[in-house]
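pinging the channel bc i need a second pair of eyes. not urgent but kinda urgent?? the chain im working w is below, pasted from the shared doc
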Amino acid sequence: MRALTIAFTAMLAGSSAACGADQITAGKLRVTLSENGFIKTASIADQPVADASAKDGFRGVVLDEFQPSLKENDPTAACLGKVIPAKVTSCKFTPSDGGMAQQMTAQAENINARVNIEIAPATDKPTLTVNCRVVLEGDGLASAVGLAVPLLAGEDPYLRKTTIGSGNAQRTSESWRVNQKRRQRGWPPWTLGGLSVPADNCYLTWKASRRDTPPMPMDRGTECPDWLDYSQKPWGVTVIWKGIHNCAPAGIWMEADTGTLSIFLHPPDALPLRVKGKTTLSASIELAFHEGPHPTTLKRELTDAQYRRLLEAMDDGSRYTFLAKTLSAFNCRTADDLLFSDVLPSQALAMEGGANYRFNALCKKLGIPFDRARAKSQPRKYAQQLIHKIITKLGGKTAFKF
């Protein structure tokens, strides 16, 4: 991915616009809008979750012009050049459908832009609906266009995670901890990652240890995920982008060390966008803030108390227990680590691959009959049925399938 080897992105830099900031309330969420575009501060239940002033030079709108360095007979010339951030030339706020609209103009060297951001709050939950429209005019190359949210990084770098999924995700495409250096020596700290959608028929989820190192692919396919969540133990935020594949190339990136959550209408890892005359980019997304470490888009099968009871039943104190194998599979050290993660109970149980002696011991503890003949003749099919019975026995519900 080209952008990860030359630069992550340059945030919109320019003069302060004389328009002030406005506030939006959505349930327990309080948001202050920035005079330089998008979100300046945010808090949920009076707990600060975002603050642009805590990040030097941060701007909420990303608009970069790319100027290649053309060299005769040099096949790599198209990859060389410099990134020029646009400068704000005007900004104003106007009321819009119960929320606020931000109209901005910005100017780079060969490209100018008109940016319109409409932000509407939900009445009963800490969620914002954001409609963004960017009109680019001029003659040049745009290397990145999008929005950025200045999230506050938690004190414990290990207790930060990013999860990507689809819809009401019974399973997630990928979930990973960021900055694991403190607990796992020699294991690279995943400080950067996200969802990239290069075309309408494919996607890639990835993570990297630094901005200037190659990313590690984690999942790719054709049925594109539509949300990315970044969470810490007390709070988190989910970017929900329905139909993101229709806006390709597009992407959602999370840089955990700086707390920068970027929503790209044209991402830096795509080829620069050729602007000749007028080019329009638009997107409609939701920013769903939440209390606790689990995204609202993740349909949970058990409560924390029920999940903990299951994990206790999976542990008999020996070295090779059901729990020990599950923790190892999901790179967790303790049951608390697994509870913090977005690994569903059905996923934890499914790691066995089929009904076996560990399922037999677990069923015995929970008072669920175990059929040895079926476990031998139909191990996967029977394990799927047992997973449903176990979760139901604990008071939950699942739609799990192998």
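so Residues 304-393 form one domain. and Residues 379-393 form the longest helix (15 residues). — does that match what u expected or am i reading it wrong
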